[in-house]
UniProtKB/TrEMBL annotation:
Highest taxon above the source species: Bacteria
Keyword Transferase among UniProt keywords: yes
Record's protein name: Fructokinase
UniProtKB keywords: Kinase, Transferase
Classification via InterPro entries: ATPase_NBD, ROK, ROK_cs
Annotated CDD domains: ASKHA_NBD_ROK_EcFRK-like
Gene Ontology MF annotations: hexokinase activity
Coiled-coil regions listed: none
Keyword Transferase set for record: yes
Length: 310
């Protein structure tokens, strides 16, 4: 039996489309990126097809017995109800049969998954959660979301929303956290409104009157500036509650953090002991780690949507 020699992963973002070609052992054979043709559905299909051809050419994979597999990671999801894209912030894809159109264009099946699920798969296959059965990957950036990999495969869920965590309410809220900030989704007090970079900045402003970006607050806290340190303490407490709530449901083997705020080592290190009091268990020894592949986890996870057995 011939073995697949190349896996191509595409990370479809709002400003750029990144692609990678992985050898069977996970080493990178080719990489490329192009700007996202915003608002242009046909142009997006063209760009991805061009990227796939370029990656195959650079990796020398044309004419292989089994063509390179193609996986796509993107914000949003494929509706299991009708096969159309939903919840994408690249809004020109919503309501489109994107996976089918791309499969026809590339003359092969494609797998499309939410980008947070791709992070989880990437880290589960050969990243910070390598070999673990249940990997919960959390993105803390401009937005907040998460994905779950079960034995190295994305857990999609019946409604294709498994891991959608950012628009659950902040758990165990204190009186001064209710009803919480208004969220674009129409609710109040969503986890994203507290734990995203903009959420961190808004909380800092509400308590200190200072308008600072998330990175500035983090830097000031590291120098011991009291207002910023207090903001980071509130942030960590809220993040720990948000994480504990899900630990009580899926009890992951490892929690992997991605996104800008995951790069702060002191945040990652402080979490286990802050999560523990909220977990309904006599013991809590779940590791919390920063993602190993960082920004490359999106493309790598998309490539690994086609696992060793597929
Ligand atoms: Zn919301």
């Amino acid at each position: 039996m011939s073995e697949r020699t190349l896996r191509i992963g595409i990370d479809l973002g709002g400003t750029k489309i990144a692609g990678i070609a992985l050898a069977p052992d996970g080493t990178t054979r080719a990489e490329a990126r192009v700007p996202t043709p915003r608002g242009d559905y046909a142009g997006t299909l063209d760009s991805i097809a061009g990227l796939v051809a370029a990656l195959e050419s650079e990796a020398g994979a044309q004419g292989a017995d089994i063509p390179a597999s193609v996986g796509i990671g993107m914000p949003g999801a494929v509706s299991r109800h009708n096969g159309l894209i939903k919840n994408a912030n690249s809004v020109w894809l919503n309501g489109r049969p994107f996976a089918q159109d791309l499969a026809a264009r590339l003359a092969r099946p494609v797998r499309v998954e939410n980008d947070a699920n791709c992070l989880a798969v990437s880290e589960a296959v050969d990243g910070a959660g390598a070999g673990e059965e249940i990997v919960w990957a959390v993105i803390l950036g401009t937005g907040v979301g998460s994905g779950i990999a079960l034995r190295g495969q994305a857990l999609t869920g019946r409604n294709a929303i498994a891991g959608e965590w950012g628009h659950n309410p902040l758990p165990w809220p204190r009186d001064d956290e209710r009803p919480g900030p208004a969220c674009y989704c129409g609710r109040h007090g969503c986890i994203e409104t507290w734990l995203s970079g903009p959420g961190l900045a808004a909380d800092h402003f509400s308590q200190t009157g200072e308008r600072q970006a998330g990175e500035q607050i983090v830097a000031a806290a590291l120098t011991g500036e009291p207002g910023a340190a207090a903001t980071m303490a509130r942030y960590l407490d809220r993040l720990a509650r948000g994480l504990a709530h899900v630990v009580n449901v899926i009890d992951p083997d490892v929690i992997v953090l991605g996104g800008g705020l995951s790069r702060i080592a002191s945040v990652v290190a402080a979490l286990p002991e802050k999560i523990a009091p909220h977990v309904f268990s006599d013991a809590f020894d779940t590791p919390v780690r920063a993602s190993l592949h960082g920004d490359a986890s999106g493309v790598r996870g998309a490539a690994w949507l086609w696992g060793p057995e597929s």
